[in-house]
Structure formats: C-alpha cells, structure tokens
Amino acid sequence: MHKVLLLTTAVACSAGSGQVAGSDQAGDAATGSQRVAAGDIAITKVSLFQGVESVVMENGGEPEKAQAPLLADRLGMLRVHWDRLEGFADRTVVAQLTYDDPEGNPVVQELSTFVDRDSSEPVLSDTFNFDVEAATIGQGFSPTVTLLEESADVAPTGNADAGTWASGALEIEQSDSIDLVIFPIRYDADGSGRLPDTSPEQMLALADKFAATYPVTTINVIVEDPYPVDYALTSSGLGWTELLDELSSLRVRADVRENTYFYGLFEPEPTLAEFCGYGCVLGLAYLAPSTSDDWARVALGTGYSGDVTIDTALQEVGHSHGREHAPCGVSPADPQYPYPDAKIGVMGYDNIHGEMVPPSAKDFMSYCGPVWISDYTYNAILQRVQALRAPNRVAGQGGSWRRVRTDREGGLHLGDAVSLKRPPGGAPEALRVFDAEGGLLAGVTGYAYAYAGLPGGGFWIPDVPGAVSVAR
Hints:
Layout: E1 4-8, E2 20-21, H1 28-34, E3 41-49, E4 53-58, E5 70-71, E6 76-84, E7 91-100, E8 106-115, E9 128-132, E10 144-149, E11 164-166, E12 172-173, E13 178-187, H2 200-213, E14 219-223, E15 227-229, H3 240-253, E16 260-266, H4 272-275, E17 283-287, E18 298-302, H5 307-320, E19 348-350, E20 355-357, E21 362-363, E22 371-372, H6 375-389, E23 400-406, E24 412-419, E25 428-434, E26 440-452, E27 457-462, E28 469-471
Parallel strand pairs: 5-12, 13-14, 13-15, 13-16, 16-18, 21-22
Antiparallel strand pairs: 1-14, 2-8, 3-4, 3-6, 6-9, 7-8, 7-10, 10-11, 17-18, 17-26, 19-20, 23-24, 23-27, 25-26, 25-28, 26-27
C-alpha cells in the first residue's frame, strides 16, 4: 500500500511589520549589556501565542482570567506590549529577549522599532513580537525581556525596572502529535472514478491550518491509496453514514496509535458549486464524547480544492475529539460554549499569514466565519489529546461487538462483528436480537452513538451468535 507522509508544524513568521530583528546568537549579549535600559517606557503586558493568546503578565501581575495552557514543543510567538511614560521622546527602542534552551545554552533575540505611540491590541506592529522555536519551549522555560536604548551612548533615565520583565519558570504542559490519515475516495457511483484534491499543495495547506489551530506538537498527514465507493453520496447526506461506518471499521482493525484520525475526502460532483448549489452536507463525523471510543476517530468531508475542504476538516475532526457545534448558524449547539455567536473570545495569532485574529472571529466548530479556534475549544481538544497520550493508557479486552445503524425512518440495521479494544461508551438502551427465523435470541444492552451534522446514529451491542436482526 502506497502512502505519502507529510510532516508539518506551524511555520513561525518573522518580526512584525516595522520591526528589525537582531542576531539571535548569545554573543550579542555582550553588546546588549553595554546599552542602558530605557527608563521612560514600561512593559505592560506579555503573552505567548500558540494559536490563541495566553497572557503571562498584565500590568505587573498575573492575569485575572484563566489562560490557555502553554505547551512544550509547540511554536510560539511572545508578544510584548509597552506604554510610554511621562517625558518619553519618540525614538527607536530595542527589545531583548533572553532565555536558556533545554541544554542550558543562552539564547538572545533582539527586535527594534520606532516608538511614537502606546501599544494597541489589534495592531501587530505596535508590539514586539518574538518567534520562539518549538524545541526551546519546555520545562524550565524562563524568558526575560528588557527594553533598551538603541545606542550605548545614551545616559540612563527614569525607572529602568519598568522596562524589564522576568517571568521565572513558566508552567508548561505536554501535548502530543496527531496522525491524520487521509483516504481519497474514488467515486465510482457515476462511473467517473473521480478523486479528491490530495495534491502536495492542498495537503500542506490542510496540515498548516491544523498545526496553527490545534493544540498539538505536530500534524502528520498520511495519504492512503484511493478507496473505491460505488454507491451515491448525495448533497443531502445519503450514503454518508454508510461510508463513515466503513472507515470506522477500518480504524478499528488498524494497528495505529491512539491519537490517529481517519478522514475520507471525496468529490461526488465535478465542482463544489454543482454539488452544493442548493445547499449541502459538507462533512460528517461521530460525536465522540468518550476517550474509549477509538472507533469514532473517523470523519468525512468534501475534497475540493481550497479553504472549504480545510475548514470542514477542522470541524469534523473536532467532533471526533468530542466537540459539539459552537452556537452560530447551527442548532443544537454546545450549551456550555462561553461566548455569544461562537466568537473565539480571545485574541488569536495566525502564524501562517503572520496576522492577529480578533476575538470576533468564529470558532471553527460553528457554521459561521471567518474561522479560528477559541480558547474553550483549544482547551477541550488539548484535554482529549492529553488523555490519549497518557502512558498508562493500555488497551483492554473490549470483546466482539456489532454495530446497529439507525436509518432515517428509525429502522435498525445489524452490521458485522468487530473486535473493539475497549467496551464502547454511550447511553445504554435495551434491545432485542433475533435469528434468521425471527426467533428471539436474547435481550441485550445497546450503547448509543450519534452523528454530528446528520440525524440518526446507532448502537453498539455485544455479538450474539446467530443474530441477523435487531429491534427495540
């Protein structure tokens, strides 16, 4: 079986517009020590962005609101805000960032900019913005920022302490990488054999958006061989649940690690406009509330070129992490979502384009845009990723189970037996299974599951030998 593996982490951008980066070699520290601290400008806020903002200092202290966790081995952008103090004269100011890498080697980075106003939250160039490499963020990460005069000839003035911030060791959490296994669906229902766009350019764009938003260390995108499907996949969702169940069975049988997600891409019509001209389903996933349900780590979406495919994948894989819809353009939605109209609620940073993302942007779990990730979704996905990477997480004896799919008319359809690593989660419901002659074999407990985006769902029931049908 041929596979293409793309490894990506979010690509850090350069210093903000109007800023000049200095050397990041430790030898520059000697030059920096000869310059005096700028005593008439104060550091008022410091944040580390790893997708969403995590404030580490505000107005000299810790932020009042709980922040998104800082993650080891994930690229970051350290953003430093300033306010000018009384008597400040407009001029170029140098910000020096220092810290030790994991081997204890000193790292020094410098940025300079002309300061003629106070920092403004939405304007990237109104702050000092340091790219921090993923490998340097870990336990013991203790950055210090000092605002310096550009020239060593300037005499000290004002309060030098106002322009210095020393963090101490920041609290850092561990995350994990995600394997996203792409199944290009060969659409044979109309005889076309049409395949989705899995070009290197499209897959890299997909990986970059996941890496920029999901709270993970690395996204591994793996493109499998084409998977043939000879039944129709319609814009209203017909055929989708059957295909999702097929990929779920492949996921159950695969020898893959826990943080692995299967994703099917397909093009039922030659163009997205033809497929979605009168409204359409763009993606489908199971709503996977339990960490035990590895069978639910699968999803589907249309595979046309461009951002619609990518943003759909963000949401569908979010459902595979147990996330409900965010409340904008869709109902029902997550009743616990903390911000109105699915706003992300905090500043974000798009390191693909080097742009700030305003709090008014929409969470990708909604049906509104433009999309980014909220701190609420970021934290929730991180908790699932962390739970699945736990070193004591060992596969149990799940036994043999059969899927019962519910169709749109409420009919129950019994699937083939599969071996699950763990007993399935879900709400229990009493069901009955029958043999080929219609005789009752047993009463069993079914464990319900639901689709995210389409009505219906199904159950998992213990495998009863001889069972050919099931009823409530």
